[in-house]
Amino acid sequence: MSASDKQPLIAAIEAGGTKFVCGIGRGPHEILDTHRIETTTPEETLEAVSRWLSKAKAEHGHFEAIGVGSFGPVDLDPKSETFGYITTTPKPGWQHTDVVTRLKNRFKVPVGFDTDVNAAVLGEYLWGAGQGIDPLVYITVGTGVGGGVLVNGRLLHGALHPEIGHLAVPPPVNSLAVQRECQCPFHRSCVEGYVCGPAIARRWGVRADSLPLEHPAWEEIADVMAHALMNLTLTLSPRRIILGGGVMEQPQLIPLIRGRLMHHLNGYLLIPQTGREIDSYIVSPGLGARSGLLGSLALGRMALDASR
Fold first, then answer.
1. Phi–psi pair at 97, nearest 5 degrees
2. CA distance 118 to 70
3. Which of 46, 114, 148, 249 has the greatest number of C-beta atoms within 10 Å?
4. Rounded to whole angstroms, how far apart are CA atoms 21 and 40?
5. From CA 194, how far away is CA 210, in angstroms rounded?
6. What is the DSSP letter of 184?
7. How far apart are CA 89 and CA 196, in angstroms?
8. What pLDDT was estimated at residue 3?
9. In this prediction, what percent of the chain has a pLDDT beyond 90?
10. Are the CB atoms for 36 and 292 separated by under 8 Å?
11. Has residue 62 got a pLDDT over 80?
12. Residue 1: what pLDDT?
């Protein structure tokens, strides 16, 4: 029997506002199968997830737990009546959706549940660009903006969970955007309202992946992100910040963000991370697009260990 055979089989679900990515495996080097499901209504999407998990179980064997990293906000308080729910999300139709109870009732196994970005920071901490790094922050910039935080080896929960995408930032100065306003329906000037994919498309009149490298939008996006990273650097004092998501795949963006962060800090922090080590302080994910799914698998393993 190989070492990997000794590891329990876990089902993982990265539940995003655009797509659900499901997988089954034993660890980062043994993912047996994956499947993408478009996010539509809760009933349709969760039923499609359950059908795929049943199929995966028939093909690969009994999985011992399920890990879910979900878009939010979500209720992570085990004592709450709505634990395992997606709560006040702006995603139409998904408000107050019970994810965990449905999966537990269907498959009769422990279910680990957290935000998609907390799952991603956990995956990066265990197997990616954050190995041995603590405190660690992961931010994804895509359909929305979210952030996960790991401190003292544990995912950060509190009254809720980190909502980094809605940190207040100064409005961009002298913006050349065709629509200058913040696109967040809740706030007048927050990170997500300026730099998530849909906000970029509305503000600049073109999708982010269609903007040329020299377009002024990138300088503005970098400046907004740098304000957010300055706030996180000053409040959490992380040892590394990982930037993922589709928008961050632009090769010029992370170097621009590093430069703007140093500009905004203006020499205040005399630490290597915001000086000569800035290139290893603000980095891309080591796991690429797999951070959330692998982190969800780790959540399932943690739920299994807690149940024994």
1. -100, 125
2. 9
3. 148
4. 13
5. 17
6. -
7. 16
8. 46
9. 92
10. no
11. yes
12. 30
Residue 213 CB partners (closer than 8 Å, separation 6+): 250, 251, 252
Distance CA 186, CA 4 (A): 46
Query: What is the reported pLDDT for 73?
Result: 92
- Higher pLDDT: 134 or 274? It is 134
Q: What domains, with CATH codes, occur in the chain? A: 4-119+289-307 (3.30.420.40), 131-285 (3.30.420.40)
Judge whether 55 and 47 are in contact, CB under 8 Å.
no
Which residue type does 153 have?
G
Q: Write out the two tokens for 92.
A: 């139409």
Q: How many CB atoms lie within 10 A of CB 246?
A: 16
DSSP state for residue 251 in the 8-state scheme: T
Global pTM value: 0.94
E runs forming strands in the chain: 10-15, 19-27, 30-38, 65-70, 85-86, 97-98, 111-115, 136-141, 145-151, 154-155, 240-244, 282-283
- Report the alpha-carbon distance of residue 19 to residue 194 in Å, rounded: 22
Print burial letters for 4-39: b (CB count within 10 Å at least 16), e (below 16).
eeeeebbbbbbbbbeebbbbbbbbbeebeebbebeb
Contact 118, 88 (CB under 8 A): no
Q: How confident is the model at residue 5 (pLDDT cuts 50, 70, 90)?
A: low
Question: Given the DSSP bridges, would you call strands 111-115 and 154-155 parallel, antiparallel or unpaired?
Answer: unpaired
Strand partners, 10: 25, 65
Tell me, what DSSP letter sits at residue 74?
A: B
Residue 64 tokens, joined: 């011992």
H or E element in which residue 232 lies: helix 216-236
Q: Strand (E) positions, 39-84?
A: 65-70
